[in-house]
Specification:
With 505 residues, the protein is an alpha/beta fold. The protein contains ten helices and 21 strands. Strand 10 (203-209) and strand 11 form a beta hairpin.
Length: 505
């Protein structure tokens, strides 16, 4: 059943068993997994089934940190959430991403990768990203009829990214959600405050509002926030009626450790004698039995441990083919001719089909958890009278140095293989290039930790100290790894659904 909150009488009180705030990847996955359960579920969405400008403006936030904007463009406030403009990139986190790393402050999830493995396989189906075969590079190349290539060192591994079509969760799963007898979808209702009991040990209800001025109260047995990495933290901070610093914020961790994947779409130039030895899986998107995929390069676990670096991901693509030495354009990369000459001298001359190939290298790095990179509340207010979020995204010199060491390791692998030479185009030192951007991956602001002093939720995604409040989505990530977060968001939501079923039994 779907209900437009603007059609309800002002002051109405609603009651359910489970309230889910936010109908994006996390909220819709949770509702799907609980469709048909023997308890009532209310899925609450701030927007409608289609985008509208007035609701979207509720996502505006103040930015005081690294350039990151406009923030409201990174999240969509209508049914399906940000899956409505998601690029579809899928890959699970690596095993090391879950572990304590003594060179990464605040690292270590209270669960390991094995706990999520069965949920990852189901998440891949929900995301419609094909078979769960991310580590089977040889298998994919065999299906494509491609002869693979080896990187001779132990620094970089050949991996695969699989793509969702991309699946627009709102449109794809609306019919199934509407058919669930236990599910009630409430549109155009924005959660404006979480009400706690006097000792803040439980949530007593939610205040909801519409942009036309209506106010409602919703009560439930259990509550899940699934509103995104900025809005989850913002709603907890706004809910200060009992705890003046915000609900669940006893340790001052709500909003801290905001993480992104710092992206640089052109960070190096790779010059190859010829692209023939490089598997085309790594040079352009491929399609196998309806699955779209592309190769990527990531540092091995041994390399991360030995070099004490963060995770990273790199992709490559042909930028230009250079037909002959004398025809190289004047505006070509300044090192193109000398580096290609070096390669040809070592190989006994240029290949018959041209002078060389210029390949662009782009990618993203993992960001260390940083207490000063955070979401707080602005003095600016939105149309509902609520203080907007205030984002202060900060990177550290270690984030840049780690990305650079990984990039140079990739170059060393190509050089050792005799395939090519890589020239790093990043500035030296701590400065980032002007084209630095995020991936619209809001992570870490309600981080998971066994010790409440170090996080906001426990291993079951329940807010520490509050018996009936849970959080879903990438805001619970303690560390980010280098994989796009959506697949892990969906896997965690499926795991949370199993936990909720047990609690409701």
């Amino acid at each position: 059943m779907i209900q437009d909150a603007r059609e309800l009488p002002d002051g109405a009180t609603l009651d359910t068993d489970l309230a889910i705030v936010g109908a994006g990847a996390a909220g819709i996955t949770l509702a799907l997994a609980l469709a048909g359960a023997p308890f009532r579920v209310c899925l609450i969405e701030s927007g409608g089934l289609e985008p509208d400008e007035e609701t979207q403006r509720l996502a505006e936030a103040e930015n005081v940190g690294l350039p990151y904007g406009p923030i409201e463009a990174t999240r969509l406030r209508y049914f399906g959430g940000t899956t409505n403009h998601w690029g579809g990139w899928c890959r699970p986190l690596d095993g090391l991403d879950f572990q304590v790393r003594d060179w990464v402050p605040l690292s270590g999830w209270p669960i390991d990768r094995a706990v999520l493995d069965p949920y990852y396989a189901r998440a891949n189906q929900i995301c419609e990203a094909g078979p769960f075969a991310y580590d089977d590079v040889a298998g994919w190349e065999k299906k494509l009829g491609i002869e693979g290539f080896e990187l001779p060192g132990a620094g970089m591994a050949r991996r695969v990214i699989q793509f969702s079509p991309p699946t627009r969760f709102g449109k794809r799963y609306l019919t199934e959600l509407k058919a669930a007898a236990n599910l009630f979808i409430l549109l155009h209702a924005t959660a404006v405050e979480i009400h706690a009991t006097e000792n803040a040990a439980e949530v007593a209800g939610l205040s909801l509002a519409t942009l036309d001025g209506r106010r409602f109260r919703l009560t439930a047995r259990l509550y899940v926030l699934a509103a995104g990495g900025i809005e989850n933290a913002r709603l907890l901070l706004l809910s200060d009626g009992v705890q003046t610093t915000g609900l669940g914020n006893d340790s001052d961790m709500v909003g801290r450790c905001f993480m992104e994947h710092p992206h640089i779409y052109s960070m190096a130039t790779l010059l190859l004698r010829t692209h023939d030895p490089v598997s085309r899986l790594y040079l352009e998107d491929q399609y196998v039995d309806g699955t779209a995929l592309r190769g990527n390069f990531m540092p091995t676990e041994d390399f991360q441990r030995s070099q004490r670096v963060l995770n990273a991901t790199f992709t490559i693509g042909v930028s230009a083919r250079l037909p002959e030495r004398g025809a190289v354009p004047e505006n070509e990369h300044p090192l193109a001719v000398p580096l290609l000459d070096l390669l040809h001298d070592a190989a006994g001359g240029p290949p018959p089909d041209g002078f060389g190939v210029r390949v662009g290298v782009g990618g993203a790095g993992e960001q260390r958890p940083n207490l000063d990179s955070r979401v707080t509340l602005s003095t600016e207010r939105d149309a509902l009278g609520l203080r907007r979020g205030r984002l202060d995204w900060r990177l550290t010199p270690e984030d840049k140095a780690s990305l650079l060491r990984n990039l140079k390791a990739l170059g060393a692998e190509f050089a050792a293989s005799g395939l090519g030479r890589l020239n790093v185009d990043l500035p030296e030192g701590d400065s980032w290039p002007a084209e630095l951007t995020g991936g619209n991956h809001h992570m870490g602001t309600t981080r998971m930790a066994a010790d409440p002093r170090n996080g906001v939720v426990d291993a079951d995604c329940r807010v520490h100290g509050i018996a009936n409040l849970y959080i879903a989505g990438s805001s619970v990530f303690p560390t980010s790894g280098a994989a796009n977060p959506t697949l892990t968001i969906v896997a965690l939501a499926l795991r949370l659904a199993d936990h909720i079923r047990e609690r409701m039994a």
